[in-house]
User: Fold this.
Amino acid sequence: MVLLILILILMAGGVASWLVASSNATAARWIALLSICADFVATISVWIANAGHATAASQRWFTECNFQWIPQFGIRLHLAIDGLSLVMLLLTYFLGIMAILCSWTEIRERAGFFHFNLLWVLAGITGVFLSMDLFLFYLFWELMLVPMYLLIGIWGHERRIYAATKFFLFTQLSGLLMLVAIISLAILHQQATGVLTFDYEQLLGTALQPNTALLLMLGFFIAFAVKLPIFPLHTWLPDAHTEAPTAGSVILAGLLLKTGAYGLIRLVLPLFPDAAHRLAPLMMTIGVIGILYGAVLAVAQSDLKRLVAYTSVSHMGFVLLGIFAGNEIALEGAVIQMVSHGISTGALFIMAGLLQERMHTREIAQMGGLWETMPSLSGAGLVFAMASLGLPGLGDFVGEFLVLLGAYRANVSLTVVATLGLLAATLYGLRLGQSAFQGPNPHHWKLPDMSFREWAILGPMMICLLWLGLYPQPVLNAVRPSLATASQQAVPLQEVVRR
Amino acid sequence: MNSAHLAVASPLLLMSATTVIAMLAIAIQRNHLVVAAISLIGVGASLLSLLFAASDIPQQLTSLLIFDPYSVIYVALLLCAAAFVILLSYNYLKQRHEHREEFYLLILLATTGSMVLVSSRHFMSLFLGLELLSISLYALIAYIRSETVSIEAGIKYLVLAASSSSVLLFGLALIYAESGSMDLSQFAAALNHAATFPLVAGLMLVLTGVGFKLAVVPFHLWTPDVYEGAPLPVTAFIATVSKGGMFALILRWLHPHDAALSGTLGLVLSIISIASMLTGNLLALTQTSVKRILAYSSISHMGYALVALLAGGTLGAPAATYYLAAYFATILGAFGVMTILSGSDHEAASIEDYRGLFWRRPYIAAAFTVMLLSLAGIPLTAGFLGKFYVIAAGASQSRWVLLFTLVVSSTIGLFYYLRVLAAMYAKSSDTHPSRTTLPLPATIALAVLTALIFVLGLYPTPLWNAIVSAAGKLG
Assistant:
């Protein structure tokens, strides 16, 4: 029941802040902030309550709720939470709070409707992370789109309509393919067992012809590949990230991309283990291409937000590599990478937002020597740039290291090439730190340094990155049982890896 | 004719009686409100009498008409749509300097015609219903005589509809000449692989007439002009009652139970369906008038509904019916919004009329957003569940080509819905919330329709059960 309430709080909070905003915009911000905080606290309490017997793995879900919805089609309102969902939810609410805080002064027009959309995106994301019914999953998957479209389309920068439309069309087309795959899977399950159901756990064991499984898997995969995004399908991402308002970029990069990776781990691997195994070499190759491609393009960007957007493509390549490497170490690495990328890239987008608010430009060429006038902000920027390039001690390093470690067992040559991505990451990371913050100050910027509110945003993000980098064990403990069940389905996958 | 026959015929009889009463009322004293009220009450009474009629079905009324649960469902849908059209028309007509009262007569007559179509089982009743519907529509489309576009649209529709009727008549004659029977089940006989050439040729000619009414490619050419020229409530009426009646007819007589539609007819309908989905959506991309956009989108929506018809099986007919119900609610709502926004001298048809609407009139814009998202098939709305059922029907019969076209074309379709949405949410210079008072009947209609879209999108169980049980007894 608590899971349904998580979603309802966000939806109600969104409506409330929309209604309140016409008389008092600040109150609307507080309502939005408090409703996310309430969810954050609720999720943490679920974690604390289950931290003890999480490793026992006797029971798959910490808590669930399961109601009948459309009985003729076996569709149920089935929400459940396990370690993986829990970690993703914590990330969601953490970044959600940051997104509200960073738009505190940036969004002055129509603040109520802005927060309504923001909270509804988060509600959709929460639903995606919790749904255990594929119909419901698709419903929330699409539900994220409309408010995100409006966030980009109304509060975005210059080419916002183009970017928002492109984003919506890409995700909608791939989403419909997934819907066809979901329905076909349910119908095949019905033909095999006589029960029409969309329930995740019941569909898990569906016996499929290898080629059918391959096609269905591709249906799911394309939807997740667009969201992740994976190399040839990524073209919506730089536009959407660049044109979105800061909070929108944070949510896009930090959370929406993660729903793609989550879908791969939660649905593709367990539902189609054989097909996933057959395609694993291809997927890993695409992942490596993404790592290099994203990193090389990031080096060449002159727009700060575009640069960060391309680093996302590169980092998500690691996630794809880890997911399809076929062992638990790589899978755990992928999850750590998801979390820490969410925080570090989110922080970089917030930095870009802070700079744009002060300087009214995102061009790196216009910056330089900012350390003189804003030492704390520049220092913080350097930390996040270092995190993004994978400096040991910060979260991204742990994720990338574990992914490479796991991938090495699966495919040595690909892993060697993937490691080159780290080199390119150093290039763009240093370029970012160097040309924006270091060096002389040719444009004679005189700008205010970080305010208390900005410290309150970036400080906790730095702490979280350090925590993930130095002591990732709690996160690993939380996700391990669910990853084990996810890859248990993929038994042949593991056998091949061990051989 | 006994009392049971009288009971099942009561919806039709009540509609005819209402028409006569309304006509007499006009003869005694012209009063817009009174005639509108009489029409609405008549439609309501007819709707209520369905409960009474439903107790004693299935029932054949001579060899012309059949009343079974399937007719009841569709008659109910048509009557609801007609009621909403009447609600929308009231304020629209009030702003126009015409004789307003006859409008309702024509609406009642056309609805009766569509009801006859839905329950016909004989060539005669099919043709009677069709002509009753068409002839009323000629007058309705050209109703606003001060508008030249309306008259042009009316004449266009008159010429094309009359010729398509004659083609249909010729097709019926061919079928009759070959089989010696005027029963509509001859359609099913023509589906048979052993069917003779005249039978198949006759069926194809009939399909031309049917395709014209449904506005599917390649019989769609009249749609954008007529949609644009007709008064807004009439456009809503064409999109729902006129198309719905004809769709119900072919769904009843062409829908196979055990397998997908195959053979020549299956092939032809598949081509029509695919062409409609793609053409409708592609041609809508560059339009700047919302009425034209909705006209082209209606072409593709009929293509989607045909996918369910073609899929057949146990899911086909219910999926098509649910899709149609969802489409009715949505398109009535969309035209409702446009009607409310229209002034006395011009209709809010251009996309420019909607620029920044959200900041001026948030509630109406929110309602329009819901309608557009439902047309695009976004979850939580009726349109999504309709599409879900259609895809389920197609997937259960492995109609992959049709499904793939549906996926691609509805993504294309999303683009132009987003264009309207983007315009509505754009920042415009005039951002002051306007304080125009809303016309009461249209507002009620719009509120009900918006609620209905969410209900159909979130809680489909009652309607779906009713449709499934009705479709199960088909044939």
